[in-house]
Amino acid sequence: MNILKTDIRLIHALLVLVILFPLFRPLGLPLTITKPVKDAYNLVESLPKGSIVLHANDVAPSNEAENWCQLLAMVKHNVSKGHRIILVSTVAEGPMYSDRIRREVAEPAGYLYGKDIVVLPYRAGGETAVTALAEDFQGTYKADYYGTPSSQLPLMQEVKGMKDIAMIGCWTSGDLGLWYIRQVEAKYKTPTVTGIVAVGLTLYGPFQASGQLKGLLLGQAGAAEYETLIKSPGKGLAAMDAQATGHLYMILLIVIGNIFYFRAKRQSAAAAGKGAR
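The chain above was modelled as a monomer; its predicted structure follows.
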């Protein structure tokens, strides 16, 4: 009985190790790149250097595992192409993650705050806030997240309206992408991509199929695909590697268990046959 308990503990300990190792050191296991992710990548690739990209960042602790790695991957791509970035949020936690983008990605790449990247504050109101942004960008944001007047930020002075935005990225677990489709893409034809949690496919899939969304990143898998395309392994690939190694480990246990089961069954049958003689 003690041996059995030790074996079970060993199996569980190995499972933990199998899952944790790829999280700290991604293995880069092969992934199939889906068309919606490739379309998003191609859109970013097509934008000229210096283009202004608006990221609607509704990342929060509740959806960080999926949306944060999506946003991070695309911002890295924007930075590598020399695009200028404005970050807005309709959830209170969003600016916290936008600030991380500035500190962890943009500034280490040589971006100057106010000229190449701007972090704007949280705006309440949901779709109403998106409508206000689309109709009067300058009037909606009089100052940035840090309290600096917009008049002192050169990048903000270049944005008179949606015609000055080359692309919009929406990162959400809710309806944010739909708000931008209805209030911005439909009116101004601004190319829009969305990163959503995995369960959001049924909600956003039709808009991607119709062309109203130019790209779609679905959950951690979408982030992992994008990281593969930009050749920058991150949390998305790490999570998918951990999932894959965990599944392979469980399959291996099933195979080994069946081998021992059938061998024990044969031995039992053989022993019964000898006893009958």
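Residues 163 and 188 are 7 Å apart (CA to CA).
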